[in-house]
Structures are given as C-alpha cells and as structure tokens.
C-alpha cells in the first residue's frame, strides 16, 4: 500500500508537492478547504515516529528499500539508473523517504476491506465478515476510537460507508472502533491492546466508567434518564437514576435536580419495545432487511429516550442495526460445505 500511494499519482505529482510538504501544511487544521483526494491528507496522518525504537526504524527502512527497488525496476523514475548504484539522485532520496513515511502512518491509519459471506441469500443471522484486503481512507482515518463506537462501516466495492448506530448529539465526538469493544472485552485487555497497537491510553466513557461487559450487565437494575426540564420543555438534567427492577415506586426523585421522574411511563415504553423487537426480528428472518432496520432504529430511539446505557436491550438492538447495515455492503453467498 505504501508503494501504491505513489504509483497511483506518478512521480511528477509528488515532485511538484515537495516544497509544499517541506512547509508542513496540514489541510485538516488549516483554514483551507479540505479535499480528501489531496495527498496532504495522507501525508499528515499520524505515524508516531517519535515513539519508535531503532529496531522498528531498521525493519521499516529495509522494507522501504525493497519497495524503492521495485519502483526503480518498474521505471517509476523515468530516468537511466545512476552510474553507481550506491549514488542516489535527489528525487530518488525524496521518494525513498516518502515510502518510509507511508510505512509508518499505514500502521495506524489503514482499514481492512471486507465482505459479508452468507450461507443463503438475505440470511444474515449466520453471516460472517471476511477480510478481502486493505485500504487507506484519509477522511475515515480522522475518526478517533471509542470502545462504544457511534458508527459502523461497510464497503460497497472499495468505497467505505460510515453510518451512525446510535444518537449522536451536537458537539459529541463521532467515534469509530479500532477493534476492542466493551461488550466483549475487559477494560484492562482493551487498554493494553490499544496502547500496544495504537500508542494511546483510551479515555472513552466505557473505559472511564468501567462499564461491564454484556454478560455481566446487571439485569436487576434500570438506568433511567432524569426527565427534569427547564420551563417544562428542555431537558436540563443529565443525571442517571438507578432504579431496582422490583421497585413499587413510580415517581423517583433525582438527587441532582430534585425533580421527579415518572418511571411508570418509561416502563410502558419498554414493554412496547419488546413486541417491536420481536416484529423486527421476524422481518429480519424473512429477509426484509430495510424494514427490519427501520423498526430497530425506532426501538433504539425509544430506548435511548428512557434509559441510559449500558443495558442489554440497548446493545442487542444496536448489534441488530449493525447487522442490517453490513448486509448493504459487499456480500457473497457461500454454500455451507457438507462434511461426512
């Protein structure tokens, strides 16, 4: 991929960019209009060169030399080889440096391209995601990580599509996921993986609040959102009210804003979502994926208006939405092998 970035454009394009790159112009953090096809959106991606060991640099430099030789043999430089193979022309040194730079930034910014493999058409409950290759998408690479991501991504051909899988409010970070998800992996393991592979300490909400994994979520409590409002219209309190499932109270006073929240109304909504979830699953089983997605999305909105995650029903619905969306991307039907 480090080589492909160069071969897509040709030598002249990068030579024309040389002086601009030396000035260190970052199109993301500047007032210039962002163009995803501008090479600077690739060049300025983080490579963590300051955190690398001498051995790491040595190995990547060896790889860069190999790729450089491939470009040279393929006629990328449009020139006769220098009289001495030990003597490189300035343009060759520049390209070699770009290759080494690409190898560093690809480690943290490349994405896998995948497809969904189904045993039967429109039967996605048993489908599995299969790795096809890798790609660099500079705009997608700007999304930071959360162990509770706000988007999922899928591919149509080599085009990546990102879609929201939960409500994202104005001012909130739109986060994707780099691998570890809080519902499946303990916090210590997630943080160790992210520190080792991506060189950062995860400070997402599930890590900061130590959210339980899916199987450890307490079914004996409900996490109601406080309904305290300003002038009876705009919600002013962000507190979460923990209520035992066996409570006999229907009005709970918030310890923060001192207003009462009617949980009876919330419980009625939750009962309605049970029937809706059954209907959505039925639509999914019938292969009516778009109708199922609409129903799951409606359910998620209702749940989110009443309860605050983490709780099982919310994340089950989120997972169903993710499955629906993945089915809109690359997919193939692979018949299950019959074993004797």
UniProtKB/TrEMBL annotation:
Tell me the CDD domains matching this sequence: SET_SMYD4
Q: What is this protein called?
A: Uncharacterized protein
Q: Which GO terms describe its molecular function?
A: histone deacetylase binding; methyltransferase activity
Instruction: Spell out the Gene3D superfamilies in the cross-references.
Output: SET domain, Tetratricopeptide repeat domain
- What organism is the protein native to? Cryptotermes secundus
Alphabetical GO CC annotations of the entry are: cytoplasm; nucleus
A GO biological process this protein is involved in? methylation
Tell me the superkingdom of the source: Eukaryota
Kindly state which keywords UniProt assigns to this record, in alphabetical order. Answer: Methyltransferase, S-adenosyl-L-methionine, Transferase
């Amino acid at each position: 991929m480090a080589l492909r970035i160069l071969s897509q454009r040709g030598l002249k394009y990068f030579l024309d960019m040389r002086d601009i790159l030396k000035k260190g112009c970052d199109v993301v953090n500047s007032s210039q209009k962002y163009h995803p096809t501008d090479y600077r959106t690739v060049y300025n991606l983080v490579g963590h060169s300051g955190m690398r060991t001498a051995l790491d640099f040595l190995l990547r430099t060896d790889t860069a030399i190999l790729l450089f030789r491939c470009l040279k043999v393929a006629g990328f430089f449009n020139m006769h080889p220098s009289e001495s193979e030990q003597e490189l022309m300035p343009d060759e040194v520049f390209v070699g440096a770009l290759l080494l730079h690409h190898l560093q930034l690809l480690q943290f910014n490349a994405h896998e391209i995948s497809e969904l493999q189904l045993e039967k058409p429109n039967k996605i409950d048993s489908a599995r995601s299969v790795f096809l290759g890798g790609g660099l998408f500079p705009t997608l690479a700007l999304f930071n990580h959360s162990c509770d991501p706000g988007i999922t991504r899928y591919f149509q051909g080599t085009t990546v599509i990102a879609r929201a899988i939960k409500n994202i409010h104005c001012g909130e970070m739109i986060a994707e996921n780099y691998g570890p998800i809080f519902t499946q992996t303990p916090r210590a393991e997630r943080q160790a993986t992210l520190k080792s592979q991506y060189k950062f300490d995860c400070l997402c909400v599930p890590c900061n609040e130590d959210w339980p994994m899916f199987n450890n979520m307490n079914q004996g409590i409900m996490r109601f959102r406080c309904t305290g409002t300003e002038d009876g219209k705009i919600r002013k309190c962000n507190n979460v009210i923990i209520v035992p499932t066996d409570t006999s109270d229907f009005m709970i006073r918030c310890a923060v804003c001192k207003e009462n929240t009617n949980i009876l109304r919330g419980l009625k909504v939750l009962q309605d979502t049970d029937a809706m979830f059954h209907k959505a699953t039925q639509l999914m089983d019938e292969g009516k994926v778009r109708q199922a997605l609409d129903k799951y999305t409606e359910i998620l909105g209702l749940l989110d208006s009443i309860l605050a995650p983490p709780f099982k029903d919310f994340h089950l619905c989120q997972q169903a939405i993710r499955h629906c969306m993945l089915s809109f991307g690359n997919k193939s039907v692979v018949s299950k092998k019959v074993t004797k």
